[in-house]
Specification:
The protein contains 4 helices and 6 strands; from the N terminus they run ααββαββββα. It has 134 residues and is of the alpha+beta class.
Length: 134
């Protein structure tokens, strides 16, 4: 059984690998870092998509996410506050300032099983702790 700090490091390493895959448009890395299917959500709602659809989203969305702060919830859950830009999306306002968002990440079987984007850190943290004893 790993020590608690090893579990925290695994979670953080997976989330860093997820950000790297998204920001570099590395489709092979994206496929390797998420479960199949993976639960995602954002402005278009919540759904379970295949790992391949997730990799395709990286390209079509044109999003870049810069982590600003990390908020561990438990050994398998973390919320990351981010600055989002869409420099590779022709439909996006690329001249505008970064948009503050937060993503709720959950890990299962050594991969990201959930990546739910929220408009605020508060909303993401509330969702992360919903149903958590405490």
């Amino acid at each position: 059984m790993p020590y608690a700090y090893e579990e925290d490091a695994m979670l953080e390493n997976l989330i860093n690998a997820w950000h790297d895959a998204v920001n570099r448009r590395d489709l092979a890395a994206a496929l390797a870092v998420v479960t199949d299917p993976v639960e995602v959500s954002g402005p278009r709602g919540e759904q379970r998509i295949t790992a391949r659809d997730f990799a395709d989203w990286i390209v079509t969305s044109g999003i870049r996410l810069r982590p600003v702060s990390a908020h561990p919830v438990d050994e398998l859950t973390m919320v990351v506050e981010q600055e989002a830009t869409w420099p590779d999306n022709a439909d996006a306002d690329t001249a505008g300032p970064p948009v503050a968002v937060a993503t709720l990440f959950k890990v299962r079987d050594g991969a990201i099983s959930t990546a739910r984007r929220f408009d605020s850190l508060h909303d993401a943290l509330r969702a992360a702790t919903a149903g958590t004893p405490g």
